[in-house]
From TrEMBL:
UniProt xrefs under InterPro entries: DcaP
Keyword Signal among UniProt keywords: yes
Protein's UniProt name: Porin
Signal peptide residue numbers: 1-23
Keywords for the protein's UniProt record, in alphabetical order: Signal
Top-level lineage group: Bacteria
Amino acid sequence: MKQATLNLSIVSALLVMSGGAHAATDMTFGGYIKADVMFSDYGNGAPDSGALSRQFYVPGTIYGTEGNGKEVVDFQARESRFNFKTVTDLDGHTLTGFIELDFMTHTDGNERVSNSYSPRIRHAFVSYDEWTVGQTWTTFQNPGALPENLDFVGAAEGTPFVRQSLIRYSSGNWQFAIENPETTITPFGGGSRITSGSGVVPDFVGRYNFNTSDGSSFSVAAIVRQLNVEQVVGTTSYDSSEMGYGASVAGVIPVGKDDFRFTATYGEGLGRYMALNYANAGVVDADGDIQAIKSFGGFVSYRHWWTEQWRTSVTFSGFTADNDIALTGEAVNKSAYSAYVNLLYSPSKPLTFGVEFMHALNELENGYEGDLNRIIFSAKYVL
């Protein structure tokens, strides 16, 4: 996936356009420190130390490693993050810069001595009034509707979840964006995923956000994208394209002090936009043409406040792909489900201690299943 490149020439140009002599800049530093202890039970054997699913739940990574022990414990502080933000008033125009890093997903460290892991870019963008350029959450996702879970993503199957480079225009309740394209394809008959960066057509996304008088907030998003592959894999040459589309609704509904959160998403060719790319966007047929794969995912979550300091979230999440097994074969991901319940305690606003139990079940088209039970203990301090 292509990364956003932000340089000083963008900021300089905006300063010149706006008469930067009257600029006043506010700078803030933020983030949090989070430590996790995770007791995991993999039904088919635990992945090796440092594997992605040992860091957080990723659908498709819990089928297990035969011969390994099933029960493991992992201590980590890798979710800790830091960010830097500037907001500049340019004669009535607002210029914002934001960059954020954490230490997740990397395998360039180990647990033997120092647990040293490289920082990675989460967000890096600049906004000028209604325009945003850089890497951030896809416009197709509503991150404000995500449940309050201790797992890094939480409800991973049931939500769009992508950060990528984009150009976005916002006007009132509306947002429109062109975003970085990337296609994931299943070869004819099954096999290793083909990840294609070819094609020159960006993904097009539109979203409408609105609030109601009772304090509820909702979003409706749509995406249109081209699935494209033009490359040689092994001895096979691929050259095909197909259209994909999808729609997603999300919201947060207050219930007194409590709240109900949800997201529901359907599409053909969504691929990497859903369930952390649990299913591919399409499959190549016998003629070498891409056929888009239909998928549906969603979650519901209820958060209850026991007192001003104690709260609980209960979350159910699921995803299913409509694979044509005559094309994909039967050794492809079919469905994924997970459930969470937690208890969080905040003795003061920036400090939270919590415990969470999660259960996840993944299934291939051939009926093979992988399951994971995990208890997470966390301590989090917001900077």
